[in-house]
Amino acid sequence: MSASWNPTASIENLRARADCYRTIREFFHQRQVLEVETPVLSVAAVVDPNIEPMQTTEQRYLHTSPEYAMKRLLCAGSGDIYQICKVFRAGEAGSRHNPEFTMLEWYRLGWDHFRLINEVAELVRLLLDQPQAAMEIHRYRDAVSRFAGLDPFTATDDEIAALGIQLAGQDLQLGRDGWLDVIVSHQVEPALPANTLVFIHDFPASQAALAKTRVTAEGIAVAERFELFWNGSEMANGYHELTDVVEQRHRFEQQADGRPLDEQLLAALRHGLPACAGVAMGLDRILMHRLQTPKIRDVLAFDWFRA
Question: For the whole model, what pTM was predicted?
Fold first, then answer.
């Protein structure tokens, strides 16, 4: 039997994707945010241990996000910028995931993550065609305590692992942050209110990645980042961006696990990254919710199995 040449998405759904892109471009054009394009291939990979990059035969990596290159543009004086691009992450190809997917990422100079939350909500309401969608903002600590019955900052490692194992149905041999991710995905996300833009912020400092950290009035170290959830799906991940090159190199070295560091990004940070906030948003998930389909293949011209 010959392989199917047909697209996985309907032509109607492809038109919806084109409409989505047009809405995004008009949204940022009105706000004088510059659209940019950066390389898909780079000499260094992301060092986030939770993300597995794809490497080519030319000893280069397909980017998992345009973040590093976009920050180099910010250091060069680009001003506010955004990008719509394909990104690549090794992993499962299934009903909700495709190793090649589309990301929208943008950066706002002089903003913190709280100001960015409001702009994210404004754009997502447009893209989902939900102009009156309610919005809630919760601290990570409050959300996990309320919906999982556990304080993520004071619970012991054993208590967190025990709940994670119960929810996952097996011992996955994870560390504290890994089990917290299981608790959020299995217990917190499904319990969030429906048809509501739910922003969760102030994650544990150990989950800061490229975000600033601070100590709260309660004496707890938190990451200045947020995630957006809509009807059981994570939709966006935003940071009050770290600008300290010494701290950034330290984090990279801790997490690299043998991967090469992006020395070009670090050189740019030494030159100076302006104070800013940035966010990455998965556009395929936006389209899945807009078109009310549980299958990512329905919004892709050709999914992983027909590419």
Answer: 0.95
